[in-house]
Amino acid sequence: METTGGIVGFRLHRVLDVHAGFSHRHEDLVMTGIYQDGTTVKVRIVSYTINGKPASASADAAMTKAFEHPKPGTAFQPPFDPRYTGGYSYRTAGPSTIAFASGVRDEAHGSGTFAYDASHDVVWYAYQPNALPPHATFGTILDQRSEVLPNYWAVTHETQQYKGHYGPFAGAGLQEADYSGFSRFPNLESALRSL
User: How many Å apart are CA 71 and CA 131, to the nearest integer?
Assistant: First the structure.
């Protein structure tokens, strides 16, 4: 928690591709946002296209709401965050690597591993969520972290992969997200003005 404290701005570029039978969906999203103690509190969409066309106002609003007010049980609760350790069990998985598991059946929990550096900062974590999006039967998520500001660690790249079925068709989804442009603010008000 001490390395995710404070008010920090960021930029996100997310690309999503979903295939099922003859159907294909491609989303390209760019947004700026504000973290407060590591939690997203406000975002502003810079651009959002679906299959090459600008998203509708309702799609923009839904995307904004998903980031600012995630449904309970959907925002991942990292097993290395002291606020959430009660939801996990742990075991050693090799040098500087810890395996974790949770019996909580929602998207906010999962089972996997995380690795840490010599200063005990988590540099990546990979897991299978305990609950999956509609039509998915398998999914893995990999997050890479680094010190993006002095004494502030954040996810810089995330890869989500899913497999499943839509009706009689096999399907797959891949989402890649890059986080950049991190900056500190003295308070939330000044951060919100920057958006």
Answer: 13
pTM of the entire predicted model = 0.92
Tell which phi-psi region holds residue 60, choosing left (phi > 0), alpha (psi between -120 and 50) or beta. Answer: alpha
- Alpha-carbon distance of 32 to 24, in angstroms, equals 27
**Structure tokens that stand for 158 in this block:** 């995330």
Residue 63, CB-side half-sphere exposure with 13 Å CA sphere: 23
* Average pLDDT value for residue range 110-123: 96
Using DSSP, how many helices (H) and how many strands (E) does the chain show? Answer: 2, 11
In whole angstroms, give the CA distance from residue 78 to residue 125: 9
State the average pLDDT for the chain. Answer: 94
What is the per-residue pLDDT for 175? Answer: 97
Backbone angles phi, psi at 186, to 5 degrees: -70, -25
DSSP assignment of 127-175 equals EEESS--TTEEEEEEEEEEEEEETTEEEEEEEEEEEEEEETTEEEEEEE
